[in-house]
Amino acid sequence: MERYIERIQKRKGAGRFPQGEMKKEKNRHSFSGSIGFVLAAAGSAVGLGNIWRFPYLAAKDGGGLFLVIYLILALTFGFTLLATEIAIGRKTKQSPLTAYGKLKEKWKPLGVLACLVPVIIMPYYCVIGGWVVKYLLAYLTGEGSSAAADGYFTDYIGRAGQPLLFMIVFLLIVAVIIFRGVNRGIESFSKILMPLLLLMVVGIAVFSLTIKFTDGNGVTRTGMEGFQIYVIPNLEGLTIKGFFTVLVDAMGQLFFSLSVAMGIMIAYGSYVKDDANLVKSINQIEIFDTAVAFLAGVMILPAVYTFMGREGMEASGPSLMFVSLPKVFASMGKAGNGIGALFFAMVLFAALTSAVSVMEAVVSSIMDKFHVSRIKAAVIETVIALAGGVLVCLGYNNLYFDIVLPNGAHAQILDVMDYISNNCLMPLVAIGTCILIGWVVKPAAVIEEAEKTGCRFGRKRLYIVMVRYIAPALLVVLLLKSIGILSVI
Ligand code: PHE
Prior knowledge:
The chain is mainly alpha-helical. The protein is 73% helix and 2% strand. The chain has 20 helices and four strands. The chain has a two-stranded antiparallel ribbon. The two termini are 32 Å apart. Residues 44-45, 47-50, 121, 125, 256-257, 259, 354, 357-358 line the site of phenylalanine.
């Protein structure tokens, strides 16, 4: 391995990105500095997954055990995928749709696939964003307690008018940010929202640790007890099979959480200046994303445990956010409405910065491929997302039908789109990217790109082994698991 690294470093030009084709894109915008880039990328990474999935998985998979495995994977597997995509973006100065083809002509189709993912995600992400807007308004107008009633959520999403309206509101906010461009839009928006989001998460987490509640049976539970369930490793009855479940859960979560395999990090990487320290930025993005995920657990699990007991900790996804948590806020008495409003404002910020990145991946692709203006590209993507969003909303109304997915889950249109993008396309894109960089273009290209400014790529050996062998192998396991073929683990 030592020799391999030396060889690739000596052999200048070998395993590099094709230089001749790398015309400087003079008019391309760029982030003004590394803070702007890190906050924008962290804004993409910190999303609904951090809030509604990470805490649940941690509670289900043995608390601290999950946390440790997640952290190890973040520093190895996550680092590899993130570094690869950001380096591809910065080197090619292209959007996902065109970047792969620029690296190797024959690999163009992978770019199409990578760009398809955000096209599919955007419509349903806006629908969920619209639900968040609705709940925030409910708490802001002091009607939060009605959201705690049984059936409120399913009644609401089944309606024809409001969900559509709020989906459009969410989409338009995102579109305006994209219209304003990389600096005045994405960057300045992330620089305001991300520090605010962090502050809110820390504030709610601290509050969560201080609560105490005695239920109807006279049992008193405290936030600190819930916190202990979250962080203390529970190895009781752990089997090999159980360990694999934890591993695959952590891997799937990390993969989704870092916003890789959907072209986003390539698009954002293409806006990073050539003199920026990539390695440092990548580490900071990972730390931000993991810290917010961990804090989301501190925010949610103690509160849910205190007011709903251990069973409450079993909810995840939309049912955690839109059904369980409103009940928790209602049990908090007077403080509930304010905490609820703060919580949904925070979720809205997280969802907005993620949606902005999804839209940018598509808009930059349209711009690079068809050489149209930002405004035109953004209008095209807004219309596509709008049409898709209407379909998704109607999936709970006029177009309601119950589809059973290959993995056995019952689904509506939203879930079908989620399944196609997350379970099938994303692992495929990531496997393709690893093969392209690991075996065709060669890992040296990424290492060289990262070290261009003289910074040290500390985990070289690890990176090479990861991108060539381990990451693709883990991704194949993930793909088989998510399409329901591998049900043993
Ligand atoms: N990374 C985001 C999260 O953890 C998810 C995301 C999905 C981001 C789709 C952008 C687009 O929630």
